[in-house]
Structure prediction request, 296 residues.
Amino acid sequence: MTRLRKTMLEELERRNFSQSTTRTYIRTVEDFARYFHRRPDQLGPPHIREYQAYLFTKRKLAANTVIQRLAALRFFFIKTLRKPWSVAHTPYPKKTVRLPMILSQEEVAQLINAAETPFHRMLLMTAYATGLRRAELAHLKVSDIDSPRMVIHVQGGKGRKDRDVMLSPKLLEELRAYWRGMRRKPKVWLFPGNRWHTANHPITTKVVWSACREAAERAGITKPVHPHTLRHCFATHLLEAGADLRTIQVLLGHRDLEETTIYLHLSQKHLGETASPLDALSLSPSPANNRPRSKK
Prediction:
């Protein structure tokens, strides 16, 4: 491990950054140095500008991804190298806001029923029933299932924040059946790793990805489906069932209510119940309907 890498890791650890953010920041600096074939501490603002253009034009990365890469470089230059960073010389691109793809409840049922294994089925059911992020799902512990209170404790979610989500009676029933069918009863992790799910460590987030992708293919769902799709479905279907945005915000662990309002754009119920202002106008019949019929 180089001195620079060690220093950057120490700075990230001092600020209690998540493992995911730490990996992303380290890989970004490595990629930055690899692109110029030079040590990162020998590079400066002109190189950052060229690298940013390269990410857009050659790598075709989305604006939000480039923003994350720039945040990593900013952290490296300011916190690791103790060098200034000019926002004027390195402007952040405008964020691209796209509405996520949503599955209907019938499609979610098809997805879960098409799971390749009982283990994958349990993962998909838990993801949809709780709206957890894939890392939160993978790191659930047996002790997080609080059946007397009918809640699931989410520990160390995004931003290192804990929260509780509801425990569906149907999910609890399925979890108990899953538990009875386990070859070796988990002691710590609800979803243990390795091929037989008997390891002393949790599954990786890649397992959750694979469960979604394979089930979507088997179900014949052509929409792009990934673990976060089930999180979006959880929130949208709750909204359509009458839950208020504040409750959904708390369940999802959103910092700002504005993040949660995106589901207003996805809810068919809310869109369908909102009348267009055109409907309130008193209009004369369309001229096309008043044209005299041609004589034969």
User: Anything to note?
Assistant: The chain has a mean pLDDT of 91.
